[in-house]
Design a protein that fits this description.
Helices cover 34% and strands 26% of the residues. The chain is an alpha+beta fold and 270 residues long. The strands form 3 sheets. It has an 8-stranded mixed β-sheet, with helices on both faces. A 5-stranded mixed β-sheet has the order 12-11-13-15-14, with helices on both faces. Strand 1 and strand 2 form a beta hairpin. Helix 1 (3-26) packs antiparallel against helix 2 (48-64) and helix 6 (195-203) runs parallel beside helix 8 (223-229). The longest helix has 24 residues, at 3-26.
């Protein structure tokens, strides 16, 4: 194994352990009366569990890999001295978390020279994890069971597909409500409570499409290699394999063009 692969493998092993530890720390406040919710400038919720989990991740990463960069949702960026950067979302699905819904996850992504190469998503309230690293496949674990290979579905027609979203109102916020309605009508069924759980369902073949009209880098970096290593595509709405476009679609390679066609044709006029 060459040195670059060894370095990635070391970081991936650390990412799995740290995501589990940070995620489990959030359970101390999950479904408790002690949980206090604050709101950021964009009115998105944040809690002490978010901040504490990210603080733990940052300190542990920089202790083990002091030259790496770190970017997180809650605590900003630390510039590194090499080409590795960790991208963290301590609680993706904070609205699920604060309402006591267990479909939230801790996301740990890894970039190399600006490319998303590895990701871990851990769902602490479910004790389930999915992870993928470039060229190493995508794997999922549940409770204490051995890892199993994760694969996207083999659906070929949108009318057969389960569509995952997080919030229908987010489509209206970017003048894409008509696109959402067209997709909902074309798909077999639509379900919400998406967030990172939606990407998990797509990567394991239990859902077929996950769409985000708006997302940040820390929402995308872990998800992209997971979807790709499960045999799927992670694109922005213009059809580019990017993590920094501010929107995303995950699906298999046959369904993706059908989804993009609707998104690109049916976005509302401003």
């Amino acid at each position: 194994m060459n040195s670059a692969l060894t370095e990635i493998s070391q970081r991936m092993a650390a990412a799995r352990m740290l995501a589990r530890a940070a995620g489990n720390s959030t359970l101390q406040l999950f479904q408790t009366e002690r949980l206090q919710v604050d709101f950021k400038h964009d009115r998105s919720p944040v809690t002490a569990a978010d901040r504490q989990a990210e603080k733990f991740l940052r300190e542990a990463i920089l202790e083990q890999f002091p030259n790496d960069g770190v970017l997180g949702e809650e605590l900003g960026e630390v510039t590194g001295g090499n080409d590795f950067r960790w991208v963290l979302d301590p609680i993706d699905g904070t609205k699920s978390f604060i309402t006591g819904v267990p479909l939230y996850g801790t996301m740990v992504g890894l970039e190399l020279a600006g490319e998303a190469i590895a990701g871990v998503i851990y769902f602490p309230a479910l004790n389930e994890m999915i992870y993928g690293s470039r060229g190493e496949g995508c794997w999922t674990t549940r409770h204490e069971q051995p890892p199993r290979r994760a694969k996207v579905s083999n659906k070929t027609d949108l009318s057969e597909c389960a569509l995952m979203i997080t919030d229908a109102k987010s489509f209206s916020a970017r003048d894409a409500h008509a696109a959402y309605l067209a997709l909902e009508q074309a798909a077999l069924l639509t379900r919400t409570w998406g967030d990172c759980y939606g990407y998990y369902l797509v990567a394991t073949g239990r859902a077929d499409i996950m769409i985000d009209p708006a997302l940040h880098l820390w929402d995308a970096v872990a998800a992209k290699p997971i979807i790709e290593e499960a045999g799927g595509l992670f694109y922005d709405w213009s059809g580019q394999a990017k993590t920094d476009a501010g929107d995303a679609v995950a699906a298999n390679s046959v369904i993706m063009p059908q989804v993009l066609k609707i998104l690109q044709q049916r976005q509302d006029l401003t």
